[in-house]
Amino acid sequence: MDKIKQQLESLGFDDKEISIYLSCLKYRDGLFVSEITKKTSIKRSTVDIVIKRLIKKSLLTYHESGRRRKYTAENPKYVIDSFREIIEAIEYKLPSIYPNIENISTAKIRLYQGTDSVVRMFNDIFLTIRMSNYEKKEILSISAIDQMNLVVNNSQSKIEKKRLRDKINLRILTPNGQLADKIKEGDSRQTLRATRFFNDKKKQFNISFNIYADSVSIFDLKDDPVGVIIEDSNLAESMRILFEIIWENSK
Hints:
By secondary structure, the protein is α+β, with helices and mostly antiparallel strands. 46% of the residues lie in helices and 21% in strands. It folds into two domains: 2-74, Arc Repressor Mutant, subunit A; 84-248, Endonuclease Chain A (Endonuclease, Chain A, 2-Layer Sandwich), CATH 3.30.870.10. It has a seven-stranded mixed beta sheet with strand order 3-9-8-7-4-5-6, sandwiched between helices. A two-stranded antiparallel ribbon has the order 1-2.
């Protein structure tokens, strides 16, 4: 169980998701929600929410037992193998961004999946910046702001409040859009933000990059969102150089 827990943590699952999954895994016949609540000590309303996430992520299935549902955990090997396929798909895209990433033994890579993981990724970004000794508390972002807002289900304001709370500067490169235009209008010293636009009329931009401290986050905003955080100082510095080149040639 400890090994499975470690593997799930490395794939970005939170404590409640892991606790509920492992509890169901112990019982082949499945558990009712009331039983899950009792065994995990997680309140009922939260259990209901987490179960829906786990079903969406294919970690849990259910069957009808009388008028109630019993939830059963999928085989951990199946779960881990399915996520390995996602990781391989992301790694396939990485060479165009960083050709030698597979040769860098010091790089740490974490995977995130699903719309709610964007907020979790930003929480990780803010925590990393707070803990880092890097000279600037700044995020350099290349992102389709309007598309990102749809993905995070209007949690943009919460993310922004956390950034301002931690006094983290933000520079954004984004295509024009209704929300992007509004954000640019609010740029000031008080908002610790500066925004510039680039043209994506020829091809829609659906990837979000964030460069900060010694890390880079990459998030695919199309279909079922998938994100990855890469902790590597060489990659971060190389991406900073590219960002500054684009920034200087944008308005």
